[in-house]
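Title: Prediction job returns without error message
Component: structure pipeline
Severity: low
Priority: P3
Assignee: unassigned

Description:
Job completed but the reporter wants confirmation the result is attached to the right record. Sequence as submitted:
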Amino acid sequence: MPNLEFTLTFKLPHRAKASEAYLDALHMAGCDDALIGIDRSGYIVLDFDRKASDPDVAVATAIDNVLAAIPGTVLTEVRPDIIASVLP
């Protein structure tokens, strides 16, 4: 199975929450294949290197993982713009 590289950006529901809690929740939800950055302006960026045979499935499952880990977060960007069908 090939590794697919893509980046997801989300607006966080609570800027004041400790970033450590987000990192733990993301890891537990299956985002252990992502490099994660939390912006002080209330955004989180995840650079994924996910094994999958289908790009649609890779991005859709990554989005689901993040939404499960951080309820209330909102997807704002997918890069590269490889899949439009998985966006909510």
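Comment from assignee: result matches the submitted record. Residues 3-79 form a domain with the Alpha-Beta Plaits fold (CATH 3.30.70.3400).
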